[in-house]
């Protein structure tokens, strides 16, 4: 139970998004619009090969081109960054390629000019000679390959320092979990054993605002204006690279035109910072939409899953082998392997579990985190698998899940006990959402109809920290300083509501200062649906601290007798002689109690501050002559805890489900020998209005025990189960199982022909 | 992007004079929707663009000619064609097609001249105009030519137009009692460039279909008229059996090219299905 009483109307009401009017009238600050005096534009010369030694880089023609100010290569970066490798987990990514390139599109040089067109033209004049090496693109091939993307692994953070200096492998990080007894023995004892393999493809985040950064030398220091989801990390990492005190690197972030994980950690910041210091002038790099496709993708993966079931339809053992195609550099990939790997057994109560989840290096663009943090891929596998087992056993999929679901108090495969019954509720509600068990029109002729559903679980990031400052002014209005990035998810509005609630003032009286590391304190980053819980708590505690200080002040000036109604301005006037002044509250929030999982078994009694649960049900219609799947309806069920702002939560849930629907049905990054061949919205099709079905969002009436006013994150929840719900509905409609996304007409049609023993020709 | 020059001629004749058949970096721009995409993706770097925006007004006009044919000026936008009631009465398939073609913003500026000259196989209008037996009237230094739209496209992004020859207008012959339809199939998003387009026109005499024109767009380098399937349906009444045979003939005789929109085998299946559907659609059309 959460005992934080809600008194004013600040929390729980759908206050309009505070930046909405400014956004639709074009007044919001985006870095793309930033122009500084004397600023140079940088254009990046990129690798044209997937894997090669750099023999030489001849920049002379580009340097001689009129209007070019400076051309920099990897070696030049060393003048300001002696060891120019960055990364949130492994320090493995060079600011500009050094001696080797590892994917098509990797930055090799940068040209600076006052005219971005000139910089662009000059890029084409740089002559890079390569000695090509054998590339490796597929995650399974990379495992056994004799060609290595990295000669030596370079772990950065202490938690994985045991990997130090591993040679001759493409495995970046091998996560493992062992729960209960030996799974292989359990499979022996099982009545039925099922084994399936699934694949997912790389997709692209493509926020409508591509990454953009401006770096500005400021005398002794450096200011980085950037579209980034983790401003505190930017200052941390750039100061590490430069060998400067963190206090000299200021990172500021206004609004983002979308993030979805594409703008986490370091994107352009290291390159632009080095370029600005070397040019001694402000430098701006704004990527084109096309360049985004070479910069970051969502992991494609191969997922093998095996389950043993007893005679009563109870799953007794599970083994998962997951291979994440991480691309050329680690980025957050090891954490995706770790974090998603953790819940690979799903929201099910299984005695014996073994999970191996490997992030694998390949010669593809870097794969990072994307909305859902690996879970949509995993749930795609385990919820297809669950349905397939149910059908083969002749048990209704709902009943089969009921028999195996993780109930309140039961131990999850990580060793942490579930503190809620939300997952059972999600299951029942999602099934009810498509009237499961009731009669259904299955269609006729060449149009067949089906319905399906899926449920999923995700743990939050741990450990992680959010800090906040709340300042109360002498008129009682308040200012919140925090480094959470509002990238469209509405965090400014929700955080302001929390502060207003604590201080019992109207929401409009709270101002939110955008991330600026000169003034806003530390935050791990805006990712993994963590802000509302972590920063929400920090903001709440900072507001309480400020309130305490104001009460203290009232006492000091004799305005605290019971029944006193001395207004705030007068409290300040009594102290300062005039109605001026501030009280400042601060807070740092790291969820208490976290126990890091054992590196060999993944076991921990407290692995997450809170669980996230989601479910989706889908109704589909299939044209059996073309295989085309039309989504008729989606029902998303989510546990978002107490809703601070119900409308924002609902938009987050449907937004995430639409995003995942696009990746399920139509989006796929195509590669030809490592080269992306559909790097534009003309050929990479995100959903338009016509691709979006009726969507119903059903939110549980729940409360998160330690969440701010009972709330928790929900930005990703809608993405979890869409893919497997659709696949299960397709099966329900036409009796074929799709093992690989996207679920295009052709995939389904091929499966139908396969099932009819009349397979369609290969090409 | 290197700076380039923009010319604003006031007549089509003047525009042709600014072209240089030897220099592919000089091109005319009408709506600019295709050109801009090519420039953004770095496949076209112009030195000079010749805007047709200021040429004679007749280029943007359309209407019924005294001889019963319909004339569409080369600069008429797709939106103009969509909304012109005379054209809709003359050849209803055009309005039907426009509603599936690109989006309002593109149709508002893209022109029939651009749509025919671009040569991208994944387009909706070319097969429709072939099925209507339309003619492109061109203008060049040597004067004017009449080129049946059926002969206009020569390959992938290639037309038979000379480097200094432009489309002045398109003429559609009288359609009389012809029935017509266009079916578009997309394979990624609902709104997309076509993976396949099937245009069909024909005259019904009682139950039998005469003079059919069946044109398959998008699956090959150019729109293709499928004689083998036309032979199957010509002079026959459209029974289920005939329809199936025609679909089979089309599927067997149209060579499909695989790309990111689908494999060749899948596209052949789509051809079969959509030809059958087009035949059913015209058979069921009420006159
Ligand atoms: C977002 C988007 C979606 C689209 N979707 C579809 C779709 O669903 N279906 C479809 O069919 N098409 C689609 N298209 C393509 C669209 O139909 C073409 O871009 C358009 O028809 C080109 O006409 P334009 O006037 O803009 O040509 P421009 O871009 O101006 O020119 C195209 C080419 O034709 C040449 N040219 C122009 N006018 C003439 C002339 N009078 N004589 C000779 N040469 C000339 C130019 O030099 C150039 O080479 C889409 C385009 C976009 C941008």
Provide a concise account of the structure shown.
Chain A is α+β, with helices and mostly antiparallel strands.
Average pLDDT figure of chain B: 96
Q: Tell how many strands the DSSP assignment of chain A holds.
A: 30
- How many domain units of chain B? 3
Number of helices of chain A: 19
- CATH level-four homologous superfamily name of the largest domain in chain A: Aldehyde oxidase/xanthine dehydrogenase, molybdopterin binding domain
* CATH-scheme architecture of the largest domain in chain B: 2-Layer Sandwich
**Could you give the order of strands across the largest sheet of chain B?**
4-5-10-6-7
Return the structural class of chain A: alpha+beta
Low-confidence stretches of chain A: none
Low-confidence stretches of chain B: none
CATH topology of the largest domain in chain A: Aldehyde Oxidoreductase, domain 4
Helical fraction of chain B equals 25-40%
Helix-strand blueprint:
The complex is a heterodimer of chains A (763) and B (287).
Chain A: H1 20-24, E1 40-46, E2 52-58, H2 60-64, E3 68-73, H3 74-77, E4 85-86, E5 93-94, E6 100-101, E7 107-113, H4 116-123, E8 127-132, H5 139-144, E9 171-179, H6 183-189, E10 192-200, E11 212-218, E12 221-226, H7 231-242, E13 249-252, H8 269-279, E14 283-286, H9 289-295, E15 297-298, E16 300-309, E17 315-325, H10 333-342, E18 352-360, E19 367-368, H11 375-393, H12 397-404, H13 422-433, E20 443-444, E21 447-459, E22 466-473, E23 478-482, H14 491-503, E24 510-513, H15 531-556, H16 568-576, E25 582-589, E26 611-623, E27 629-639, H17 646-665, E28 671-672, E29 675-676, E30 694-699, H18 722-734, H19 745-755
Parallel strand pairs in A: 1-14, 12-13, 15-19, 17-18, 23-24, 27-30
Antiparallel strand pairs in A: 1-7, 2-6, 2-8, 3-7, 4-5, 9-18, 10-16, 11-12, 11-14, 16-17, 20-21, 21-26, 22-23, 22-25, 26-27, 28-29
Helix pairs in contact in A: 11-18, 14-15, 15-16
Chain B: E1 5-7, H1 12-18, E2 26-29, H2 33-40, E3 48-51, E4 62-64, E5 70-73, H3 78-83, H4 85-90, H5 92-98, H6 104-109, H7 112-117, H8 125-131, E6 135-140, E7 143-148, E8 153-155, E9 158-159, E10 166-172, E11 179-185, E12 196-205, E13 208-217, E14 224-225, H9 227-233, H10 240-253, H11 264-284
Helix pairs in contact in B: 9-10, 10-11
The structure holds flavin-adenine dinucleotide.
Residues 27-35, 37, 74, 101-102, 106, 110-111, 113-115, 117-118, 123-125, 161, 166-167, 193-194 of chain B line the site of flavin-adenine dinucleotide (FAD).
């Amino acid at each position: 139970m959460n005992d934080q009483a809600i008194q004013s109307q600040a929390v729980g009401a759908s206050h309009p998004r505070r930046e909405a009017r400014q956004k639709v009238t074009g007044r919001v600050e985006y870095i793309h619009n930033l122009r500084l005096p004397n600023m140079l534009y940088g254009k990046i010369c990129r690798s044209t090969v997937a894997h090669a030694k750099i023999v030489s880089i001849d920049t002379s023609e580009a340097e001689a081109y009129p209007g070019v100010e400076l051309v920099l290569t990897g070696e030049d970066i060393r003048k300001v960054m002696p060891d120019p490798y960055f990364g949130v987990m492994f320090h493995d990514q060079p600011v500009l390629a050094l001696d080797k390139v590892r994917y098509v599109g990797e930055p090799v040089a940068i040209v600076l000019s006052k005219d971005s067109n000139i910089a662009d033209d000059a890029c084409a004049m740089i002559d890079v000679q390569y000695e090509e090496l054998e590339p490796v693109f597929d995650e399974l091939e990379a495992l056994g390959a004799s060609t290595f993307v990295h000669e030596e692994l370079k772990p950065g953070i202490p938690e994985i320092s045991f990997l130090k200096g591993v040679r001759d492998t493409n495995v970046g990080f091998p996560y493992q979990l062992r729960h209960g007894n030996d799974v292989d023995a359990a499979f022996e004892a099982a009545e039925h054993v099922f084994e399936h393999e699934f694949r997912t493809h790389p997709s692209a985040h493509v926020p409508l605002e591509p990454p953009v950064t401006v770096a500005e030398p400021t005398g002794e220091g450096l200011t980085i204006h950037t579209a980034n989801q983790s401003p505190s990390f930017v200052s941390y990492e750039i100061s590490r690279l430069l060998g400067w005190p963190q206090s000299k690197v200021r990172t500021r972030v206004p609004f983002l035109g979308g993030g979805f994980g594409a703008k986490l950690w370091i994107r352009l910041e290291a390159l632009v910072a080095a370029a600005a210091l070397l040019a001694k002038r402000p430098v701006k790099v704004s990527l084109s939409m096309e360049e985004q496709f070479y910069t970051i993708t969502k992991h494609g993966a191969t997922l093998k899953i095996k389950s043993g079931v007893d005679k009563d339809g109870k799953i007794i053992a599970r083994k998962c082998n997951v291979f994440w195609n991480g691309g050329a550099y680690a980025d957050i990939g090891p954490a995706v392997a770790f974090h998603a790997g953790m819940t690979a057994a799903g929201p099910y109560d299984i005695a014996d579990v073994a999970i191996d989840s490997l992030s694998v290096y390949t010669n593809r663009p870097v794969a990072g985190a994307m909305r859902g943090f690996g879970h949509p891929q995993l749930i795609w596998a385990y919820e297809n698998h669950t349905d397939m087992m149910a059908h083969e056993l002749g048990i209704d999929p709902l009943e089969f899940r009921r028999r195996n679901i993780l109930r309140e108090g039961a131990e999850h495969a990580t060793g942490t006990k579930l503190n809620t019954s939300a997952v059972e509720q999600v299951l029942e509600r999602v099934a009810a959402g498509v009237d499961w068990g009731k009669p259904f029109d299955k269609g006729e002729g060449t149009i067949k109809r089906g319905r399906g559903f899926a449920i999923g679980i995700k743990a939050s990031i741990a450990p992680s920290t959010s800090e906040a400052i709340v300042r109360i002014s002498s008129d009682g209005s308040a200012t919140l300083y925090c480094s959470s990035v509002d990238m469209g998810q509405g965090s400014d509005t929700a955080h302001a509501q929390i502060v207003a609630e604590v201080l019992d003032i109207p929401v409009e009286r709270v101002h939110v200062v955008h991330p600026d590391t000169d003034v806003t304190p530390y935050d791990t980053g805006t990712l993994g649906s963590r802000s509302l819980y972590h920063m929400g708590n920090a903001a709440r505690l900072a507001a309480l601290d400020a309130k305490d200080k104001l009460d203290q002040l009232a006492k000091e000036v004799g305005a605290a007798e019971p029944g006193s109604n001395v207004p705030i301005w007068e409290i300040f006037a009594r102290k300062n002689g005039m109605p001026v002044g501030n009280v400042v509250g601060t807070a740092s929030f790291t969820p208490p109690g976290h126990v890091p999982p054992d590196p060999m078994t993944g076991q921990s009694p407290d692995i997450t501050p809170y669980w996230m649960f989601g479910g989706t049900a889908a109704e589909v219609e299939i044209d059996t002559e073309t295989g085309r799947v039309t989504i008729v309806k989606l029902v998303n069920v989510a546990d978002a805890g107490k809703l601070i702002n119900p409308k924002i939560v609902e938009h987050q849930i449907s937004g995430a489900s639409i995003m995942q629907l696009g990746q399920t049905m139509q989006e796929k990054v195509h590669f030809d020998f490592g080269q992306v061949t559909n790097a534009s919205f003309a050929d990479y099709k995100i959903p338009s209005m016509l691709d979006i079905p009726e969507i119903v969002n059903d939110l549980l009436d729940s409360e998160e025990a330690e969440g701010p006013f009972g709330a928790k994150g929900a930005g990703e929840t809608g993405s979890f189960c869409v893919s497997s719900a659709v696949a299960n509905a397709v099966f329900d409609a036409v009796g074929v199982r799709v093992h690989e996304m996207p679920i295009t007409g052709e995939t389904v049609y091929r499966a139908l022909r396969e099932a009819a023993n009349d397979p369609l020709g290969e090409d | 992007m290197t700076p380039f020059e923009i010319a604003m001629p006031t007549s089509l004749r003047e525009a042709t004079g600014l072209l240089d058949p030897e220099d592919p970096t000089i091109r005319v721009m009408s709506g600019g929707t295709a050109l801009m995409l090519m420039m953004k993706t770095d496949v076209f770097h112009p030195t000079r663009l010749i805007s047709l925006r200021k040429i004679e007004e007749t280029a943007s006009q359309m209407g019924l000619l005294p001889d019963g044919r319909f004339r569409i000026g080369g600069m008429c936008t797709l939106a103009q064609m969509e909304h012109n009631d005379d054209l809709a009465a003359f050849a209803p398939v055009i309005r039907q097609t426009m509603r599936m073609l690109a989006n309002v913003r593109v149709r508002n500026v893209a022109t029939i001249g651009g749509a025919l000259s671009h040569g991208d196989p994944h387009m909706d209008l070319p097969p429709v105009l072939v099925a209507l037996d339309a003619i492109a009237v061109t203008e060049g230094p040597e004067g004017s030519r009449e080129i049946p739209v059926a002969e206009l496209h020569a390959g992938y992004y290639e037309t038979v137009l000379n480097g200094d020859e432009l489309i002045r207008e398109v003429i559609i012959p009288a359609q009389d009692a012809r029935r017509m339809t266009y079916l578009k199939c997309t394979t990624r998003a609902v709104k997309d460039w076509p993976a396949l387009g099937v245009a069909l026109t024909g005259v019904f005499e009682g139950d039998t279909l005469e003079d059919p024109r069946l044109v398959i767009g998008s699956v090959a380098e150019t729109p293709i008229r499928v004689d083998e399937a036309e032979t199957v349906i010509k002079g026959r009444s459209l029974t289920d059996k005939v329809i199936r045979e025609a679909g089979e003939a089309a599927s067997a005789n149209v060579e499909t090219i695989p790309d990111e929109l689908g494999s060749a085998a899948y596209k052949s299946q789509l051809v079969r299905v959509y030809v059958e559907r087009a035949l059913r659609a015209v058979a069921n059309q009420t006159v």
